[in-house]
């Protein structure tokens, strides 16, 4: 199964990275528009996630069993592939400065792709770790994402199997988590004009992570599905805080890096940073998930296993309570790293205005002359939009090019 999962993981990783990069190309570098688009996409994402989790846990697994329930996976991938086949490039044309690529064999194309991936990781790490403005994104984004995935894929199955005696009920807990994500994305959409930066949402996320401390000391009766719904209810605020922080932080990254010129013509600054952050999360989750999972399984077997009523509560104190407390501390501290982030709800961080178009974006403006006989179309290239931290004034450099069509 490992090769199959690796192949599907390649496709999933590309989709996840595209989902975090392409909004900037669609709506530009305005953080307000980016927050709205990211939150709307996440809402639809979680509508399907919530419905799918509840359907799987309550209908598909009870009807087909744990093994046969996987039969829907190829069908879902096929539907996704058919849907993607209808997507177009929207008349995208390669800039004249970029020569057309020569056709290569599949092996050479794959090697070239791996080279560009390694290059993007290096560029992304250089951007993140060389500036106070961006270094806080590693704990704020990647480590917080690891905690969320561990909640759904690591903690929920352990509770369902070891506490309640039915592994299928983990999908009920995941459904509650996804519903919390939906509400978190909806909150960002509704409060986009009130909360201007990711900081309040990330601090709320850090606070809600501490809810998991009840799990090691909880002794529910086994075999009662109502207990799974109770866990789902406690997962909702945790995922609410994470989703709100993730959506607003993704929009912040997209907007701030839209204003950063990449010195490397092969990779963009935004793509490089998102590739590094997502890769950092994957490596962290792969290592910690494996180590912590084996630790809990070993403790369960040493305490008696299936026949001797094995217990993992002592291990959950460290793998759940302590781990999430450390993550909460890292996320909370990260929110005070950027310049100007000490306020509870800062208007901006790092002295940068992210509302409005980023430099290099073309704005098409059309209209008629007073006589009604001439149509004028102007293309304005925005070159700079930042706030000077010392003087507090908006600085805008000259750099407009006009094109009149008679």
TrEMBL record:
Predominant subcellular localization, coarse grouping: membrane
UniProt keyword annotation of Cell membrane present: yes
Chain positions covered by the region annotation Disordered: 387-406
Membrane topology listed for this record: Multi-pass membrane protein
Gene Ontology cellular-component annotations: plasma membrane
Highest taxon in the source lineage: Eukaryota
Entry keyword set: Cell membrane, Membrane, Transmembrane, Transmembrane helix
Transmembrane segments: 43-64, 70-93, 105-129, 172-194, 201-217, 229-255, 267-296, 316-337
Subcellular localization, as worded in the UniProt entry: Cell membrane
Protein name: Major facilitator superfamily domain-containing protein
């Amino acid at each position: 199964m490992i090769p199959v999962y690796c192949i599907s993981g390649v496709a999933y990783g590309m989709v996840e990275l595209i989902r975090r990069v392409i909004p900037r190309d669609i709506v530009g570098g305005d953080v307000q528009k980016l927050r709205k688009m990211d939150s709307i996409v996440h809402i639809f994402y979680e509508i399907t996630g919530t419905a799918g989790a509840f359907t799987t846990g309550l209908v598909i697994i009870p009807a087909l069993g744990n093994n046969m329930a996987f039969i829907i996976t190829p069908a879902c991938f096929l539907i996704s592939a058919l849907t993607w086949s209808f997507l177009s490039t929207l008349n995208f044309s390669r800039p004249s400065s970029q020569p057309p690529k020569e056709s290569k064999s599949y092996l050479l194309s794959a090697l070239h792709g791996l080279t560009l991936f390694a290059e993007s990781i290096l560029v992304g790490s250089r951007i993140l770790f060389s500036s106070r403005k961006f270094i806080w994104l590693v704990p704020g984004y990647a480590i917080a994402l690891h905690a969320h995935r561990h909640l759904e894929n690591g903690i929920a199955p352990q509770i369902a199997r070891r506490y309640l005696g039915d592994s299928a009920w983990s999908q009920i807990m995941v459904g509650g988590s996804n519903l919390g994500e939906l509400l978190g994305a909806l909150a960002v959409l509704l409060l986009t004009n009130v909360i201007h930066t990711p900081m309040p949402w990330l601090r709320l996320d850090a606070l809600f992570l501490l809810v998991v401390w009840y799990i090691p000391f909880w002794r529910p009766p086994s075999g009662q599905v109502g207990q799974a719904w109770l866990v789902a209810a406690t997962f909702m605020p945790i995922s609410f805080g994470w989703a709100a922080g993730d959506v607003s932080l993704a929009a912040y990254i997209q907007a701030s890096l839209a204003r950063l010129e990449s010195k490397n013509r092969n990779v963009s600054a935004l793509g490089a940073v998102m590739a590094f952050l997502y890769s950092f999360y994957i490596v962290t989750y792969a290592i910690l998930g494996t180590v912590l999972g084996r630790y809990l399984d070993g403790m369960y077997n040493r305490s008696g296993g299936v026949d001797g009523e094995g217990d993992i509560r002592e291990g959950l104190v460290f793998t759940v309570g302590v781990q999430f407390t450390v993550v909460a501390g890292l996320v909370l501290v990260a929110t005070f790293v950027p310049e100007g982030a000490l306020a509870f709800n800062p208007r901006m961080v790092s002295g940068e205005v992210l509302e409005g178009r980023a430099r290099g974006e073309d704005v098409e403006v059309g209209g008629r002359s007073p006589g009604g006989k001439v149509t004028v179309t102007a293309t304005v290239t925005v070159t700079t939009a930042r706030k000077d931290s010392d003087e507090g004034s908006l600085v805008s450099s000259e750099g407009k090019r006009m094109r009149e069509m008679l």
